[in-house]
Amino acid sequence: KTNIGLAGTWLSVVWASSLKIFVATGTSAPYIMYSSNGITWNSPGSPPTLSGAIAWSPSLNMFVATTSNSPYVYYSYNGTTWVAGNLSSSSFTQSTVLWVSEMKQFIFAGILGTLVSYYYYSVDGINWTAYSSRYNGSTYSLAWSPTLSTLVAGGLSTQTSMSYVQIPNNF
Q1: Would you place residue 69 in the very low, low, confident or very high pLDDT band (cuts 50, 70, 90)?
Q2: If DSSP codes are grouped into helix, strand and coil, which group holds residue 159?
Q3: C-alpha span between 36 and 16 (Å, rounded)
Q4: What is the 3-state secondary structure (H, E, C) of 34-92?
Q5: Rounded to two decimals, what is the model's pTM?
Q6: Contact 26, 9 (CB under 8 A)
Q7: H helix or E strand, kind and range, residue 149
């Protein structure tokens, strides 16, 4: 472990192989940083407050990052220039995002209140559609199993076990 001198809380980091860069999001300014080697990090100038998760789609050549402020999602093709996506909803306090390559779409989970998560999907990373069900718990992370066709949501729950959402392949 090497301390690279970046103050703040960095919540999520992804590697974009075709761009050969890491991109990280955090909870304090500059909120987003990028690096070609994982040691020297740069700020993209005046980025939006991307205080949540980040995902990379190799097939779309696109990053999607989340925030707790409307419009809740931003996208970028290079990790430095960010544009607001179209996700209209109530006020989410926290959110996460995941690229599911087998379904060729991003999955977004946003926490509304303290123990309710709503799910959205997007095939282009820009326009988002609400998934018909919600999860009675706070979703902090998502993982996809292509073998099981199952999306597992990790977070705070009133249940005694980990929760999952069964996503049909024609989502």
Answers
A1: confident
A2: coil
A3: 10
A4: EECCCCCCECCCCCCCCCCCEEEECCCCEEEEECCCCCCEEEECCCCCCEECECCCCCC
A5: 0.84
A6: yes
A7: none
Other Cβ atoms within 10 Å of 46 Cβ, number: 7
Return the residue matching tokens 């992804």: 14
Q: How far apart are CA 12 and CA 31, in angstroms?
A: 11
**What tokens does 1 get?**
């472990």
| Distance from C-alpha of 116 to C-alpha of 141, rounded to nearest angstrom | 14
Provide the total of helices (H) and of strands (E) in the chain, helices listed first. Answer: 0, 14
Q: Do the Cβ atoms of 14 and 4 come closer than 8 Å?
A: no
Distance CA 147, CA 9 (A): 34
Cα separation of 16 and 64, whole Å? 12
The residue assigned the tokens 């919600």 is 134
